[in-house]
Amino acid sequence: MTQKSIIITALAYFVVINIISSLLAVMDKRRAVRNKWRIPESALLLTGLLGGACGEYLTMKKIRHKTRRAEFMIGLPLEFTLHIVIVVLIIAKVAN
User: Fold this and answer.
1) Beta carbons within 10 angstroms of residue 68's beta carbon
2) Cα 68–chain centre separation
3) Do 31 and 43 meet the contact criterion of CB atoms below 8 Å apart?
4) Residue 94's pLDDT is what?
5) CB atoms near residue 21 (< 10 Å)
6) Could you tell me which of 26, 19, 18 has the C-alpha nearest to residue 61?
7) Furthest-apart CA atoms within the chain: distance in Å
8) What radius of gyration do the chain's Cα atoms show?
9) What is the pLDDT along the chain (96 residues), one digit of tens a residue?
10) pLDDT, position 96
11) Are 86 and 50 in contact (CB under 8 A)?
């Protein structure tokens, strides 16, 4: 793969996983309001860890969902910081 295609693939992955994470947060909020079966917190945190932390965090702040839970309000920004480090390392590796 070329440098450009690796970077484009990584960015596309992060966009898709952030959209999925945001949708899961919205779905969980709707289910909470309707008192229905909820998406497990572990699944929400896992999608954040897999790359969707930024989108999930911003969505949760916007819809005021799980904002009192430290796992989400501290954990997701930490996961996002990890993602930034990973992207920087990928770009540095590809640039060499």
Assistant:
1) 8
2) 18
3) no
4) 78
5) 28
6) 26
7) 52
8) 15
9) 788 888 889 889 999 999 999 999 999 999 999 999 999 999 999 999 999 999 999 999 999 999 999 999 999 999 999 999 988 888 888 777
10) 73
11) no
Burial group, residue 1, by CB count within 10 angstroms (0-12, 13-18, 19+): exposed
Tokens of 51: 């790359």
Please tell me the pTM assigned to this model: 0.87
Tokens standing for 54? Answer: 């930024």
Residue 37, pLDDT score? 95
Structure tokens at 3: 């440098």
**Residue whose tokens read 């899961």:** 24
Write the DSSP symbol of residue 40.
Answer: P
Torsion of CA 40, 44, 49, 51, to 10 degrees: 150
Rounded Cα gap, residues 18 and 4, in angstroms: 21
Kindly state the tokens that stand for 79: 């996961």
Amino acid, single-letter form, for residue 38: R
* Joined tokens for residue 55: 């989108």
Q: Which residue has the tokens 């572990």?
A: 42
